[in-house]
Predict the structure of Ig-like domain-containing protein.
Amino acid sequence: MSSDWLLGGFTLTGLSFWMFCSSTDSLNEHSDLYWYKQEVNSYPKFILRRSRYSADNSPEFVKDRFDAELKDSSVPLMIQDLHVCDSAVYYCALRSDFDKNSSL
């Protein structure tokens, strides 16, 4: 699966914010999308994983504030009630076991 991922956004304390991560290919039932947060002088921390059938959040990143919905070709990350401590670099990553042309 060839993908071009785009990410963009800005920060406003106290408000909700969406970061977009999209693929040139449609996400399929075997796709898992991950979001990570990396603060200065630290390693990337797992925020959440989304797939067609499940959703997992790290205990540090509660679903009330950090959420994402898997769509056809994107998985926007929503952060509610932004805080200064949310300032960081955010990464998205796609894992797909099969692409649309694969068969068993």
Observations:
- DSSP finds no helices and seven strands in the chain.
- Strands lie at 17-19, 31-38, 45-51, 55-57, 66-68, 77-79, 89-96.
- The two ends are 16 Å apart (CA to CA).
- Residues 17-96 form a domain with the Immunoglobulin-like fold (CATH 2.60.40.10).
